Amino acid sequence: PHKKSLEGVESPCCPATACYIRPMSISPLVPMWAIGAIVVVVLALVACLGFCIWKKCINKGKKPKKARERKGGRGRRKKEGAGEGEEGKEGEGKEGEEEEKENFGKLEFTLDYNFTDNQLIVGILQAENLPAMDMGGTSDPYVKVYMLPDKKKKFETKVQRKNLCPVFNETFIFKVILTVLRFMYVDLAQPLHEWRDLVGGEKEEVEKLGDICISLRYVPTAGKLTINIMEAKHLKAMDCGGLSDPFVKVVLQHQGKRLKKKKTTVKQNTLNPYFNESFSFEIPFGQIQKVQVLITVYDYDKLGSNDAIGKVWIGFGASGVGLRHWSDMLANPRRPVAQWHALCPEEEVDEALKKPIR
Ligand SMILES: *[C@@H]1O[C@H](CO)[C@@H](O)[C@H](O)[C@H]1NC(C)=O
Ligand SMILES: *[C@@H]1O[C@H](CO)[C@@H](O)[C@H](O)[C@H]1NC(C)=O
Ligand SMILES: *[C@@H]1O[C@H](CO)[C@@H](O)[C@H](O)[C@H]1NC(C)=O
Ligand SMILES: [Ca+2]
Ligand SMILES: [Ca+2]
């Protein structure tokens, strides 16, 4: 029954997509007055951070093929569409119909343009009726705002933890010159303020940072927690040569206080490092429930500071795989429990950590 013990590492229960992000976007959002301009604002509502796989795992047991085929099929259809025109259009039409049935909730926002300062002001007010993406029937949504075609400049709201009707109430300002639209001043005299239905977003937006396999073991009688950083794969390349020099930092926190910090060795020039390095911590049984383990993968750089590739949060307050792995460890005292985790952007995890835990 302990299929997730160390020996099972090669075939973990879940695919290593533990925390993939599913954006829901209003895209493209083209206000009447912006037609003709290259500027398109995209509001992407993202439900991430330990995004659930738990559901996936369960479904996997029941009807894995169908689900996967459907997902794969979609992707393929899209690509074919790009190459073959007509056929693709048909596919897309069907897709649209399918998606209409799914609920993604809606978002209230405002758009205003200041011609004196050439500022486009985007207000993200609130969302409603969002789908549950995490274990426990909830989501940790935030909104990403950027413009097309240049996605570099983007803003994000704070993450609203475990909230399907989040109030963001945040404003973002883009510097853009809309000279083309001078004759349309009239429309701009009235800022846009509306609710729009969200649609399913594209997966491509998600930046893949890589996956890490971690084994956890807790011995209650000895009050000893052992964390083994086993290996990582498909890490994002952070150096010019298309590789990284990964090492892993393990931080143990208790009630916001950093208890201990450990690091693995650096593995040079690889995106699939093998570590198998263990760290032990003394944590009395009375404290273990409230402990947070933060695992960050860095690219070591000789010059300058190391780049964070991605981060994982396990333990108290975590959601999705991070919570499940911790529970599995507690449910199997004295046994190592290994699990793959998808790395999330460091800033996102840090942002989520700041939120009070309910
Ligand atoms: C544009 O911004 C400037 C400076 O922030 C302000 O003085 C001006 O009233 C704004 N114009 C409009 C139309 O909001
Ligand atoms: C949003 O923020 C404004 C000003 O910061 C405040 O007056 C308003 O009450 C807030 N709305 C909500 C729903 O929190
Ligand atoms: C990991 O390292 C330990 C010794 O530190 C070794 O006994 C064990 O076999 C290694 N595990 C794997 C899967 O290589
Ligand atoms: Ca680097
Ligand atoms: Ca490097």
From TrEMBL:
- Residue spans with biased composition (Basic and acidic residues)? 80-94
Q: How does it sit in the membrane?
A: Single-pass membrane protein
Its family remark reads: Belongs to the synaptotagmin family.
Record keywords? Calcium, Cytoplasmic vesicle, Membrane, Metal-binding, Repeat, Synapse, Transmembrane, Transmembrane helix
User: What Gene Ontology cellular-component terms does the record carry?
Assistant: axon; dense core granule; plasma membrane; synaptic vesicle membrane
Q: Does the keyword Membrane apply?
A: yes
- Composition skew (Basic residues), residue ranges: 65-79
Which GO molecular function entries does the Swiss-Prot or TrEMBL record give?
A: calcium ion binding; calcium-dependent phospholipid binding; clathrin binding; phosphatidylserine binding; SNARE binding
* Gene Ontology biological-process entries: calcium ion-regulated exocytosis of neurotransmitter; synaptic vesicle endocytosis
Q: Which organism is it from?
A: Oncorhynchus mykiss (Rainbow trout)
**Localization per record:** Cytoplasmic vesicle, Secretory vesicle, Synaptic vesicle membrane
Q: Which residues cross the membrane?
A: 32-54
Q: Where is this region: Disordered?
A: 65-100
Check the record and name the Pfam families matching this protein: C2 (PF00168)
Cofactor(s) demanded = Ca(2+)
Q: What's the protein here called?
A: C2 domain-containing protein
The superkingdom listed in its UniProt entry is Eukaryota
C2 domain spans which residues? 103-176, 208-341
